[in-house]
Design brief:
By secondary structure, the chain is an all-alpha fold. It has 13 helices and no strands. The termini are far apart.
């Protein structure tokens, strides 16, 4: 519906639309574009050579490798948990269902710093399991396992929270139809459920990966910030900045900014593809649904 076709009480004067557009663009420029541009300007202020030296410096490379390692572990774990939780919540009725949903939302309401402190309380030297861990020569806090656990805690809602409303909207008619044809649980998942949720799953994976690489609060508590060992990229940036190595700090921060830009582009592409998929799904004649070829189970 065009502006001319809209009811009079819904049509704003041109100057109102102009002011709202100016305020929105001004807000984005002031709080998003200007800080983002400042990161790259400060990173390259002293030239490309210093920029490259800051990135290939041993501690920086160690921080980059640790960040990639943590994300590489957190992402598949969250994918498995997110799909399993979303499937259980949307396809089955069971006791404790609402409690499970509340647990999934817990990291959104708990400060990451508090989450890190909880892991210290549990696995630290003076923690509940600290003595047992020391007796078995296992180290979690102030080591890589603690960073992985903290990252898993702050990132596990993303995939599940993207899939739950999507799977609720889709319903379970197609799965039930496949079940009546004799399909097994794995056949239903791979040939019916997964094709229907693939774009939502990819969207959640993008958000989860971005949070895993950019997490600071929980990781800073459990890592001990040991240079070259337990520093992620975000922690390495803080250390460089506190040591007044501003150009090096902004150089490493620019990598995180590039990650944010790539995430934004990927997010928009997935949203566009998902919107196309949903529009097609509303046209049953032109879009009959995913092709499902399932052999009846043997009698």
């Amino acid at each position: 519906m065009s502006v001319a076709d809209r009811p009079a009480h819904l049509t704003e004067p041109r100057w109102v639309r102009g002011v709202l557009l100016f305020l929105a663009l001004g807000f984005l420029a002031l709080f998003l574009l200007v800080p983002l541009a400042a990161v790259f300007v400060e990173a390259l202020r002293k030239g490309w050579q210093l920029y490259l030296d800051a990135i290939v410096e041993p501690d920086a490379l160690s921080a980059i490798r640790l960040t990639l390692l943590v994300a590489a572990i957190a992402l598949p774990v969250n994918l498995v948990f997110g799909v399993a939780a979303a499937w259980a919540i949307t396809k089955f009725q069971f006791r404790g269902k609402q409690f499970l949903i509340t647990l999934i939302d817990l990291p959104f309401s708990v400060s990451p710093v508090v989450a890190g402190l909880v892991f210290v309380l549990l696995f630290g030297t003076q923690g509940w399991f600290g003595g047992w861990l020391q007796d078995h020569d296992w180290k979690i806090v102030y080591a890589v396992p603690g960073i992985i656990l903290a990252t898993l805690f702050v990132t596990f809602p993303f995939v599940a929270r993207e899939l739950i409303p999507l799977m609720q909207a889709q319903g379970s008619e197609e799965e039930q139809a496949a079940l009546t044809l004799g399909a097994s649980g794995w056949q239903i998942f791979w040939r019916v459920t997964l094709p229907n949720i693939k774009w939502g799953l990819l969207y959640g994976a993008i958000l989860c990966n971005a949070r895993a690489m950019g997490e600071f609060g929980a990781v800073s508590v459990v890592s001990g910030q040991i240079r070259g060992l337990t520093n992620t990229m975000t922690l390495h940036v803080e250390i460089l900045y506190n040591e007044y190595q501003y150009s090096a700090a902004f150089a490493v921060a620019s990598l995180l900014a590039l990650l944010a830009l790539v995430t934004l582009v990927a997010k928009n592409i997935v949203e566009w593809r998902n919107a196309r998929y949903l529009r097609a799904a509303e046209l049953p004649v032109e879009y009959p649904g995913p092709a499902v070829a399932i052999k009846p189970a043997a009698a």
